[in-house]
Amino acid sequence: MQTTKTAGGAKFFSSTRIAVIAVLSAIAAVLYILKFPISVIFPSWLELNFSDIPALIGTFALGPLSGAIIVAVKILLELLFTGTTTMFVGDFADLILGCAFVVPAGLIYKHNRTLKGALLGLIVGAVCSTALGILANWLVLVPFYIQFFFGGSWEPLLGTMSAIFGEVTHETFYTYYLWCSVLPFNAMRCIIAIIVVLPIYKHISRIINRLNVRLAPKEKTEEQTHRQMVRMLAIIIGLLVIITIIIVLRFLIEEGIL
């Protein structure tokens, strides 16, 4: 189903493709903002959301690069509307975990455009995202939160984990957190997305096929292609600059600097 080539700027940055990415990004952003904890079985800071679903649809329909763009845009929109509570570290983690899910799925499906290829891509993506989640929490996230949010104290994390699993000490924290929380949580997140995406695979395939026909660009001269690339890059850079300024200003205001 992924028939549109992306080697050239004009072929990738078509108006139809950009519109579809924008719609899927908006849906993903709403689902991402509506994340919620499952405090009974997981620590409250592990919040479940369903934003991987539109990103996966995008990666199957438009390719892995488009899927990664959807993941990035949803996080930028969430930062724009709600800000960050983790000094952007948690948001960056969600970015790499989301890309680790949708990009491998899109790459595998691109070379095997069947239901079996889609399933294989989803499984590989889920394994990559879950494994990266374990590594990110072990090497980056937990040490960052302990140092910058809790002043080097383990007590807040140990207290939350002990309320769920019984007595958890500094020595046993990673055993409980990584293998009893991070692993099953991320596996559940990915499995839910797979369960939702696979049944609608055949139903959306016809729409995607028609979409890909519309995405096929008309022949253009080299000069027209260059002009279109310049315009699209200018628009994208301008939007990124505006979003960055808004995020920085919001952060400075929340911190009382302005």
Kindly state the number of beta strands: 2
The largest sheet is: 2 strands, antiparallel
Q: How many independent structural domains?
A: 1
**Which word captures the global form?**
globular
Radius of gyration: 20 Å
Strand content: under 5%
- Unreliable residue runs: 1-10
CATH third-level topology: Arp2/3 complex 21 kDa subunit ARPC3
Q: Percentage of helical residues? A: over 70%
What count of helical segments does DSSP give? 10
Question: Explain this structure to me?
Answer:
The chain has 258 residues and is mainly alpha-helical. The protein has one domain: Arp2/3 complex 21 kDa subunit ARPC3 (Orthogonal Bundle), CATH 1.10.1760.20. Helices cover 75% and strands 2% of the residues. It is built from 10 helices and 2 strands; from the N terminus they run H-H-E-E-H-H-H-H-H-H-H-H. Strands 1-2 form a two-stranded antiparallel sheet. Helix 2 crosses helix 4, helix 4 runs parallel beside helix 10 and helix 6 runs antiparallel to helix 8. The chain starts with 8 loop residues before the first helix and ends with a helix. The N terminus is likely disordered.
